[in-house]
Amino acid sequence: MSQLPPSLPITRFVSSETWNPQRIGALAIYCSDGRWGNAFDEFCHRSLSIPRYDRFAVPGGAAWLTQLDNAHPELFNAAKDQLEFLVRVHGLERIVLITHYGCAHYADRLGLEDADEVLPHQMKDLCRAEAILKEWFKDIDVEKYLAMRRDNVVSFHEA
Hints:
five-stranded mixed sheet
């Protein structure tokens, strides 16, 4: 174990999770809404069997990959730059796209309040994002899922 430099402040917390240098080669792209984060982690860990996956968590998730328009081309360019970096440096082989019901990013962008009206736009964006990723990264597997909420129960569905 290496010594900590003397200039560090006193330790505030030590994680019970140990460092594991092995890369998994998987990335999940999903919305940054923290109310969904634990469910996304559990889904990726337990259902998809991808521990220690890379995360690209931003408002709207995969919507950033579909923003090549006059309103927000910077979102598209930023997403592309970061994903190219992760694929190259982390050796990604699998990308998981997750959108969630009632996403505020979509509601705000589309000017719609009803989550049922927003959902078809989210599903269309998942398909567009999948196509874009497959065009950029020909050898990477891409999967799409919808996270639904009924009261306080979260379920995941193939999209």
